[in-house]
Amino acid sequence: WFSTQSSEMQAANRLQKALRTGSGLTFGAWQMLPGSNQARTIARCGFDWVTVDTEHGNIDGEDVERSKEGSRESKAEYSADGLTDRCGDARGGSGNCWMRSNEGWMVKRALDSGAHGIVVPLLYTADDARRLVKSAKFPPQGQRGFGSPFAMERVGGVTMTEYLQQANEALVTIAQIETMEALENIEEIAKVPGIDVLFIGPFDLGNNIGHPILDGTMQPELKEAIAKIVRAAKENKKSTGIYATSGDQARLFADQGFNMVSVVADMVALPSYLTSALTTAKGSYVHSALNVAKGAVFGAAKMTQR
After folding, report:
1. Partner of 81 for a Cys bridge, out of 53, 156, 196, 300, CB 3.0 to 4.6 A?
2. How far is CA 243 from CA 87, 140, 148, 265, in A?
3. How many CB atoms lie within 10 A of CB 209?
4. Per DSSP, what are the bridge partners of residue 59?
5. What is the pLDDT of residues 146-200, one digit of tens each?
6. What is the pLDDT of residue 114?
7. Lowest mean pLDDT: which of 13-17, 199-203, 228-232, 298-302?
8. Would you say 49 and 79 are in contact if contact means Cβ atoms under 8 Å apart?
C-alpha cells in the first residue's frame, strides 16, 4: 500500500525531482548568519537549495525558524543544519534538514516538521546507514512513527494518507561521508537500500585520512578518496554531493558528475565581496598613499586656521 511511483510529493520536492529526472544536478548555498532576510536574499539568488548551518554557523533554534520563514518566498530548496520546527517552501521549493548527529529523534522531528529530506554527518559503517534509513522511513522499510499534522502542507499539500503512502519514496535521505571509517566501509554503505545521496565533506574527510586541505589545495590521496566514494555511489546507483568553496570549484565538481553541489557560504561571500569592493574603492597603493597625504595636508591646514 506504499506508493513506489512518481507522486505529488516527489513533484513538490525540488531536490528529489532533480536527482531522479533531467540532469540530476543541483546547486546550493550555505547560510551561517542568522535571519529571515539573510535566507530570503540567498534564496532569491537562484540556488536550488539553501542549507542553514546550526553546527558551525552562528544560528540557534529561533534563528532557524526565522530563516525558514524568509526562505518561504523563494523557490529554493531549503535546508537546516540541526533541528527545525518548520522546513519547506510554500512556492515550489522544499527543505532538507542537516542533522548534528545520527539520532532518530532528530530525524523524526525534522521530517515531522515538513522537511523534504535529511542530511546526517559522521556515519562510520553500513549499520549506521541502516539506522539512518530506519529512522527516516515508515514501516515496513523503517520504524518512523506517523502522526504529525504539520508536514503535509509543506510537501505539496497532500493528505495525511497520501503523505504516509508517498513519503518513503519522495523524501531524500542523505549520508555524509567524512570519516576514515566511512571511507573504508564505503562499498557497504553505498549498498544500503534507502540511502539516496552520498554527500562528501572534503575538509573533514581530508583531516580524518591524514591529508588535510591546506591553502585550498587537495592532496592526491584526498582526490583518490573522493573518487573512491563516487565509484561506489555510481556502482550502487546512488547520487553524489559535495561541499565546494567557490563557483569555480563547484563548476569543476559539477563537470565531474556530482549531483548536489554547494557553491558558497554567506560567511565566505560577504567578507570576500566587501573586501574586494573596499580594495577597489581605495585603489592602488600609490593612490591610497596619495589620499592619505592629501588628508594629512588638509588636516594640517585646518589646524593652522584655528
Report:
1. 53
2. 21, 33, 32, 10
3. 18
4. none
5. 988 988 887 888 999 999 999 999 999 999 999 999 999 999 999 999 999 999 9
6. 82
7. 298-302
8. yes
For residues 195 and 236, give the distance between their C-alpha atoms in angstroms, rounded to a whole number: 10
- Cα(first)–Cα(last) distance of the chain, in Å? 90
Contact in structure between 115 and 87 (CB atoms under 8 Å) = yes
Q: What is the reported pLDDT for 73?
A: 46
Check whether 82 has a pLDDT greater than 50.
no
Give the three cell numbers for residue 249. 570549484
pTM of the shown model: 0.82
Q: Which residues pair with 175 in a beta bridge?
A: 120, 198
- Which spans in the chain are helix H? 8-12, 14-20, 36-43, 61-71, 104-112, 126-136, 160-170, 180-184, 186-190, 202-208, 220-235, 247-255, 266-282, 285-304
Among 56, 116, 211, 287, the active-site one is 56
What is each CA distance from 48 to 41, 75, 231, 288, in whole angstroms?
13, 7, 25, 41
Residues 152 and 113: beta-carbon distance below 8 Å: no
Annotated catalytic residue 56: yes
Confidence tier at 110 by pLDDT (50, 70, 90): confident
- Quote the cell numbers at residue 104: 532518530
**φ, ψ dihedrals at 221, nearest 5°:** -65, -35
